[in-house]
Write a structure and sequence with these properties.
The chain is mainly beta. β24 and β25 form a beta hairpin. The longest helix has 21 residues. It comes from Diaphorina citri. InterPro entries: Cell_Adh-Cytoskel_Orgn (IPR050958), FN3_dom (IPR003961), FN3_sf (IPR036116), Ig-like_dom (IPR007110), Ig-like_dom_sf (IPR036179), Ig-like_fold (IPR013783), Ig_I-set (IPR013098), Ig_sub (IPR003599). Keywords: Immunoglobulin domain, Repeat.
């Protein structure tokens, strides 16, 4: 004889029926007659008052690790057997818990409590009354899962070469499906926006300004949003910015030449004088502070003046920038007011910074041309003394020099030796036209040579009557 193999579901159903027969035995006081069929038993029970549910099936949205109670309240339950099942699995039969899950129990009558709920608990739960025509209600449990990143908490790193493009991705789990929002730590996104909602973020034609920490945040309204960070490194050859391409100093003073280097990966920086690679000495120090690379020369010697360069190199390439250390004076800065008091003269003044005494100045001036966009800037020497021998002021008489307003007139102004760093000079220009605009430039010379021409300075004579007051003599003014 072949014994049929029972499944787990068959065994659970047999147990439920056994409990049903046991309850009938308790009620009647005697075991059911073998002649009584299951249908007759159900019929005899059915003849009593029909039980009805006082609760309706509903949907429950529960956050993981929380507790949910599924109600099953029956009016006129009498001796009818109630049961809870999920799918084909029987959880309870009558007052007996069939499932071995310790998180599940009956509370407050026949309500089903599920503690520490997990994603596996999602589904339909049925409360069943064992009548002739089974009655049941169904509760649907949806598990709400807070967002969780598919990556660890440590920032990921992404390397991208300059000029190429890349796409950052962010994956998160949760229920409902989380939405992804991108931001950038202490900066805006490459698109110029503060944030965008998308599972991916594209960086087109990457440059060094795109490097930084990007943050993706997943949120679904359940629990606390989750986030992950991506550190984007843009690989590019060194880029050098000069603090000053021309550096002024003097013998015995200190000089600093500065190169500001950006590179990824970090670059090695080497200093040269002309073609000679420089090493650290007692007078020469090479400092590095972040992006700032400084060549410090203490107690400058005459031989230290000249052309220098800083060379920065990494695995992406090499870059060089040139600097000059010079003893020549700094460019002049004009100090006089642009609106003169006199209609036919103007007292112009300027200042020059130089560690070495200025030997002489060269003042160039002219009437501002009406159309000077295409003028060839030339100047001519005026036939006049550079210093008057009498007690009159330093000055120039233009006479007929303004026949061509596009030609510069120049005056050489001698200077007295001084050890002051800032040296000022004033000069009275005579023979000007009333209410007319002029422009001037100045150069200065010390024993190292002429400096760079100053920027153009525009001034205007008074259009009113000339004053009778004799101008004060021009003089050297030293400023500490």
């Amino acid at each position: 004889m072949v014994v049929p193999k029972l499944t787990m579901a068959d065994m659970k159903m047999t147990l439920a029926l056994g409990i049903l027969f046991f309850k009938f035995f308790i009620i009647s006081g005697s075991p059911p007659s073998p002649a009584i069929s299951y249908s007759n038993l159900e019929y005899s029970i059915e003849t009593t008052i029909t039980p009805v549910f006082s609760t309706l099936g509903k949907q429950f949205r529960v956050v993981t690790n929380d507790t949910v109670v599924l109600p099953c309240e029956v009016v006129n339950a009498g001796n009818y057997v109630l049961a809870w099942k999920k799918g084909i699995a029987i959880l309870t039969a009558g007052g007996t818990k069939v499932t071995p899950d310790k998180r599940i129990r009956l509370v407050d009558g026949y309500n089903l409590e599920i503690r520490d709920i997990q994603t596996k608990d999602a589904g339909n739960y049925v409360c069943h009354i064992a009548t002739m025509e089974p009655r049941e209600i169904t509760h649907t449990v949806e598990i709400l899962v807070p967002p969780r990143m598919s990556y660890g908490k440590e920032p990921r790193e992404v390397d991208v070469k300059k000029g190429t493009s890349t796409t950052l991705d962010c994956k998160a789990e949760g229920n409902p499906v989380p939405k992804i929002t991108w931001t950038r730590v202490n900066n805006i996104l490459p698109s110029g926006e503060k944030s965008i909602e998308s599972p991916t973020l594209s960086i087109e034609l990457a440059n060094r300004h795109h490097a930084g920490l990007y943050k993706c945040t997943a949120s679904n309204g359940v629990g606390t949003p989750a986030s992950s960070e991506i550190n984007v490194k843009v690989l590019f050859p060194p880029e050098i910015e000069l603090e000053r391409a021309w550096v002024h100093s003097g013998e015995g003073y200190e000089a600093q030449l500065v190169c500001i280097v950006d590179a990824q990966p970090a670059a090695e920086v080497i200093w040269y004088k002309e073609t000679l690679k420089l090493d650290t000495t007692e007078r020469r120090i090479m400092e590095t502070r972040g992006r700032r690379h400084t060549l410090v020369i203490r107690k400058v010697l005459f031989t230290d003046f000249g052309n220098y360069s800083c060379v920065a190199e990494n695995s992406m390439g090499k870059t060089r920038q040139y600097l000059e250390l010079s003893g020549r004076p700094n460019p002049a800065i004009f100090k006089s007011h642009p609106n003169g008091r006199s209609k036919d003269s103007y007292n112009i003044s300027w200042a020059v910074n130089s560690y070495t005494s200025i030997e002489e100045f060269k003042l160039l001036f002219r009437k501002v041309p009406v159309h000077n966009d295409n003028v060839n800037y030339q100047y001519q020497h005026s036939k006049r003394p550079t210093r008057r021998q009498d007690n009159d002021t330093h000055g120039s008489h233009l006479n007929n020099q303004w026949a061509r307003s596009d030609i510069w007139n120049d005056v050489v102004v001698p200077n007295s030796p001084t050890e002051q760093f800032t040296q000022q000079m004033s000069y009275l220009i005579r023979g000007l036209e009333p209410g007319t605009q002029y422009e001037a430039k100045v150069m200065a010379k010390n024993r190292f040579g002429w400096n760079q021409m100053s920027e153009s300075f525009k001034f205007q004579t008074n259009s009113g009557a000339s004053t009778n007051t004799k101008p004060a003599p021009s003089r050297l003014v030293f400023k500490l």
